[in-house]
Design a protein that fits this description.
36% of the residues lie in helices and 16% in strands. It contains 16 helices and 17 strands. The strands form four sheets. Strands 1, 2, 5, 6, 7, 8 and 15 form a seven-stranded mixed β-sheet that branches. A four-stranded mixed β-sheet has the order 16-14-9-17, with helices on one face. Helix 1 packs parallel to helix 6, helix 1 packs parallel to helix 13 and helix 14 packs antiparallel against helix 15.
Length: 532
């Protein structure tokens, strides 16, 4: 079966949904998502979206905060463009029905988070992502030009070279092969423009606050198709996720520290003043390494986030979801500190794009966490991610809407998916075992603190696992589990390769073999591409 459209969007977070709404008046849109529409990292975002709004704030301040957090590896032109587009991004979200929290006087209740010099975080209590997804999904579902394909997972991109079985330049993207998970059939989706909005890859690590869908699918597909991938070594570990055996790494928003919470050791000693002048409001990479060090030095399983000095009503009103969730695990954050540990949270690298979100493969765009746009550098500033998703969705839409009116070059005949001699698998345990082994190796060897020896060891083990996966992939009918396993193995390899190339410590990449920052030799992106 083949489905054709003007725009193929893979992913249903803030970036994918925003793009769909921006282009829907200009053509037919196919929106593919591997679970339900709301199953995205956006839906789990607590803190909010950063944008300059008050007279005390300025674009220059937000730019400086972003550059400092990114350890000056961010692209200054991209940073300025995104920051200056912030107010319009907020207006777009409000126009689509997003309701941000207001004060009693109806002015917006802006939060401050780590690394920010001013209060500029628009939020919907502590469930901002859920509110954004609600509004955007309602708008998308009501648009007649948008066709939604839930429970469909992309397998691989279709390029002109793949269709013609030979190398060709420029190698246009023609769409993607997509598995209908329910029926087990691989469908062909042809499109003039293909947009990867697949989010991140936190599930490549054993401990993550990402949803189950975060398996790096778009990254892996783009890399296999020949796109440039950059800065994969910069995986952000959120400093504060709930430490509880049944919590599944529930995230404790940075906004809690923004409202005065203090990180303490088990004995009650506050420790962040030993690591950074901003103390508990230091950028995430510094706070995560500080917690990691405190746990190792003192032999503790966690540290504690304490906001008990605030009034109980203030805590419950500002953080109702966090408060209720903690209570469900027997922790009353109004009267006792919250046990927390770092967990994999956000990939600052990704598929390299230009300032319009387009990759080096014509007609293939990447927006949101899957992309490396130049905004985040070596460490993302809190709440800049949702902002980036809206801004680049708009910019990619501008390009696509302009081109869609131009005469189209003829598409070659795209062959249907060929399963060859594949058969049903009776060894699903192999998939589960390889999945666990990759995630454990990444956590142990490619975590918050790294070494060349550990990275080489991880690379060797991942290569062995990839060989097993390759045999399994071509021998048996594909399933969503096998597709995700193949993708996290690819992403793990990319993270390790980029980490081995960076011979310094900068932002989220800290190695004991090169503990200092090297602006002379290493102040540049780490870019890799699949060689054939």
């Amino acid at each position: 079966m083949k489905f054709t459209s003007d725009f193929l969007i893979i992913g249903s977070g803030i970036a994918g949904l925003s793009f769909a709404l921006k282009v829907a008046e200009q053509g037919r849109v196919a929106l593919v998502t591997k679970r339900e529409l709301a199953d995205s990292a956006t839906n789990m975002a607590q803190g909010g979206i950063a944008s300059v709004f008050t007279p005390e704030d300025s674009f220059a301040k937000h730019v400086e905060d972003t550059m400092v957090a990114g350890v000056h590896l961010s692209n200054p032109e991209v940073v300025r463009m995104v920051i200056e587009s912030g107010p319009q991004a907020i207006e777009d979200l409000i126009s689509w029905g997003v309701e941000f929290t207001r004060k009693k006087d109806q002015s917006y209740d802006l939060h401050r988070e780590g690394g920010h010099s001013e209060r500029r975080i628009f939020h919907a209590q502590d469930v901002t992502g859920r509110e954004i997804e609600r509004a955007l999904i309602e708008a998308v579902r009501s648009h007649p030009n948008i066709v939604i394909f839930e429970n469909h997972i992309a397998v691989d991109l279709i390029t002109e070279a793949k269709a013609l079985h030979r190398r060709i330049k420029p190698n246009r993207c023609l769409g993607a092969y997509v598995l209908d998970i329910v029926n087990g059939k691989v469908l062909t989706f042809g499109a003039r423009f293909t947009v990867l909005a697949t989010g991140g890859c936190g599930k490549v690590y054993r401990y993550t606050c990402n949803p189950d869908v975060a398996t790096g699918d778009g990254l892996a597909m783009a890399y296999r198709a020949g796109a440039h991938v950059a800065n994969m070594e910069f995986m952000q570990f959120h400093p504060t996720t709930l430490y509880h055996p049944h919590a599944k790494s529930f995230l404790i928003s940075e906004a809690v520290r923004g409202e005065g919470a203090i990180l303490r050791r088990k004995d009650g000693t506050a420790f962040m003043e030993n690591y950074h002048p901003l103390k508990d409001l230091a950028p995430r990479d510094i706070v995560a390494r500080a917690i990691d060090n405190e746990m190792k030095v003192h032999g503790d399983d966690c540290v504690f986030l304490d906001i008990t000095h605030k009034e109980s009503d203030f805590i419950r009103n500002h953080f109702p979801n966090i408060s209720e969730t903690c209570l469900s695990f027997g922790i009353d954050m109004t009267s006792e500190p919250i046990p927390v540990v770092p967990a994999a949270h956000y990939l600052c690298g990704g598929v390299q794009t230009d300032v319009w979100g387009e990759t080096c493969i014509p007609n293939l765009f990447a927006i949101g966490e899957v992309a490396c746009t130049g905004l985040h550098g070596a460490n993302r500033l809190a709440s800049n991610s949702l902002l980036e998703g809206v801004v680049f969705a708009d910019r990619a839409a501008q390009v696509c809407c302009k081109r869609v009116a131009e005469p189209i070059q003829p598409f070659p005949v795209v062959p249907p998916w060929d399963s060859g001699s594949a058969r049903n698998s009776d060894e699903e345990v192999v998939v589960a075992h390889n999945w666990d082994e990759i995630r454990l190796a990444m956590w142990n060897y490619v975590g918050i603190v790294r070494s060349t020896k550990r990275l080489v060891r991880a690379h060797r083990r991942i290569q062995m696992i990839q060989e097993e996966i390759a045999d399994y992939y071509w021998d048996f009918y594909i399933t969503s589990d096998l597709i995700e396993l193949r993708n996290i193995a690819t992403v793990a390899e990319l993270i390790v390769r980029c980490a081995l190339e960076r011979k310094e410590s900068r932002g989220l990449h800290f190695t004991i073999d090169y503990p200092d920052r090297d602006d002379i030799h290493s102040k540049k992106d780490t870019v890799i591409r699949k060689m054939y």
